[in-house]
Amino acid sequence: MAALTRITHKAHLPFPATTAATGRSKPRAARIRMSLQENGPSLAVVGVTGAVGQEFLSVLSDRDFPYRSIKMLASKRSAGKRMTFEDREYVVEELKADSFEGVDIALFSAGGSISKEFGPIAAEKGTIVVDNSSAFRMVEGVPLVIPEVNPEAMEGIRLGTGKGALLANPNCSTIICLMAATPLHRRAKVVRMVVSTYQAASGAGAAAMEELELQTREVLEGKPPTCKIFGQQYAFNLFSHNAPVLSNGYNEEEMKLVKETRKIWNDSNVKVTATCIRVPVMRAHAESVNLQFENPLDEEAAKDILKNAPGVVVIDDRAANHFPTPLEVSNKDDVAVGRIRRDVSQDGNYGLDIFVCGDQIRKGAALNAVQIAEMLL
User: Fold this and answer.
1) Measured over all CA atoms, what is the biggest interatomic distance in the chain, rounded to whole angstroms?
2) What is the DSSP string of 53-100?
3) Catalytic: 285?
4) What are the Semialdehyde dehydrogenase NAD-binding domain coordinates in residue numbering (predicted)?
5) Tens-digit pLDDT profile for residues 281-339
6) Which of 29, 106, 111, 292 could join 44 in a cystine, given CB atoms 3.0 to 4.6 angstroms apart?
7) Which one from 177, 241, 285, 357 is the annotated catalytic residue?
8) Is 299 in the same domain as 313?
9) Which domain holds residue 111?
């Protein structure tokens, strides 16, 4: 990253950003900047130079999140770099144990080991930590939150109490899946869910995105591709997700979907299976989701439910063969759902197939974390 980084803020048409868990569109025209406020909370962004860290800043600005101060924290390697955010220049500070003195909310996206080391330290100092890693997701007593899905998990955690806390952001593929599946689950109760994911480079970080771009150029020029991140060609290829494979044959990414769904839905009996695949797409995940219900739900009723679900947009034009694509949802806040159809392998209206796309860096990570922070205000 260059010594001076300017955070750019992207347009989110045709899906306007939605506020917290309400689904209402935010006006974007002729806005007066109201973010820097004396009565706002003090913030820290941990891992600010990474892909999600940068997106934290973009989302905070896009949503006019109020703050009285903001600390830019990263590794020793990045310390000293200068960044411009909302027309003010900041110096990136090295993350240390004393970095959280006086910090109300800390947004973490610096990897699980950093979160495990510094998250509890921050919480002990009275900071509410919203962590984007897998470090605390399955820890009993740590809320695992998608604001549109299970806001009740955060009950009792608020600013101004003087108490710190740990809050976990679910895995990106879980968030994108459950944004679409949960409204249907509330109506008809999902008893089994089969998920196949098509996951973008952004899930492996900025370096993976850069390597995909580099490999694409190299392959088109007839050169051998540079394979540092995944150890194999990514451009014009796809492969099983690079997460470690466990003794049961599933990889860690797939088991995250299984375990996190059960925790978020507070249902240890729901059956979930997943196959996760890396595809050469830059920043938005796609997921094929098959749902089996306890109670009947026909496809037209499902479409109506999804059209009214917060943070969801339906793209389902059979005549034009137009359905969600990763490109359409890139840099967007909403999750798009289409291919909504009855599962013909099941009798009656007890099964549906849907296809879901969502921006991995925004709703799959940064936006969800900032929405959690908004619920603390």
Assistant:
1) 63
2) HHHHHHHHHHTT--BSEEEEEE-TTTTT-EEEETTEEEEPEEP-GGGG
3) yes
4) 42-157
5) 999 999 999 999 999 999 999 999 999 999 999 999 999 999 999 999 999 999 999 99
6) 106
7) 285
8) yes
9) 9-169+365-374
- What distance in Å separates the CA atoms of residue 52 and residue 49, rounded to the nearest whole number? 8
- What's the helix, strand, coil split of the chain in %, to 5? 30, 25, 45
Residues 356 and 253 in one domain: yes
Kind of pairing between the strands at 128-131 and 4-6: unpaired
Q: What is the DSSP letter of 317?
A: B
Separation CA 294–CA 39 (nearest Å): 48
Residue 309 located in a structural domain: yes
The answer to the question of residue 114 being in a domain is: yes
- The H helix count followed by the E strand count for the chain is 8, 16
Domain count, the chain: 2
For 60, the token pair is 């905070």
Half-sphere exposure for 266 (CA within 13 Å, toward CB):
10
**Residues 24, 302, 358, 185: is their CA dihedral positive or negative?**
positive
Task: Let me know if 172 is a catalytic residue.
Answer: yes
- Same domain for 55 and 178, yes or no, is no
- Structural domain includes residue 13: yes
pLDDT tens-digit map of 184-234: 999 999 999 999 999 999 999 889 999 999 999 999 999 999 999 999 999
